[in-house]
Amino acid sequence: MTRYNSAPILRHCWILTVYSILTCLATPAGSIAWWSTIAQLSAHAPKADNGLSSAPSHRALCAQLEGLSPGQARICELFVDHMPVVGFGVKNSIEECQWQFRYRRWNCSNPNTGQTIGPVHALGTPEAAFTYAMLSAGVAHEISRTCRLGLLSSCGCNQEKRPPNLQRSWMWGGCGDNIHYGCQFTQNFIDICERERDYPKNTKEYAKSLMNRWNNEVGRKVNQFICN
Which residues, by range, are in coiled-coil regions (predicted)? Predict the structure, then answer.
């Protein structure tokens, strides 16, 4: 199993979602079926030695992705080169989850079918909340890293100025992960399916949607915390 350096991110996801989990144990979570087909695009993710993404044309690609909301489908067409990177982030997140929890009863696998995650994401459990945060963190991390490598057409290196509290003895320069872009794109792509539902306030459905977005944000915040 190929692993990547996301272990600290996923461990922090688990810790920081615990508080929010306690408020949603009795509330089933919404579907995150978008990840199931996008993960299959990881084979098309761009690499430093072969240039930009080799993904098919946007209409052919986005039409094949089941589970996308209308807004996600639009983002897919506008940022088609990002989709294999999103898939790679999903794939790596699940593999890291399976490694970190390999001795636990649940490790991002469905015990009945052997497939990843399975129906656990639709339950109001700690595992469901972790799943949302994990996927959000993994996608943000991979988009940020791929920007740094110059393999996406709409982003590049991190352009942030030298932090004022950085020790004078430390040099500031080079090309860092574009964390801001990675988190912003991930928020737009993943959270839009929740925003589109437009549930009436003071309903269980609205509360579920807010909780899903909260756990998505936890994943992005963990990514920012670890990488900064």
Answer: none
